[in-house]
Amino acid sequence: MKKYETPWSVGSMFICTKCGVAFDIPENAENLKKDLRGYLKTLDAHQKIRVITSGCLNICEKTEQAVVFQPNDGATEVFTVDKNFGLALNDLKSFLDKKI
Question: What's the longest Cα–Cα distance across the chain?
Fold first, then answer.
């Protein structure tokens, strides 16, 4: 086994892919990931925070999208955002703004 340092300096955001399936928007996590990565690139912060889709995060709220933020240093943050794509995207952008 080899150990590596993360190439992103601040942390990682994981977006659950199963949540969207639960509220009939199966591509929700992938679309959020794509738009958040694009947003981070506009801020030249795409090498600071890695946005990744993930399997179930065991935070199953039927009408909310589960997200985890794992900083390189510090405590993991687990939360949900609204299933509405626009609201979720705005909330997550605001969250990321505070991290970079």
Answer: 41
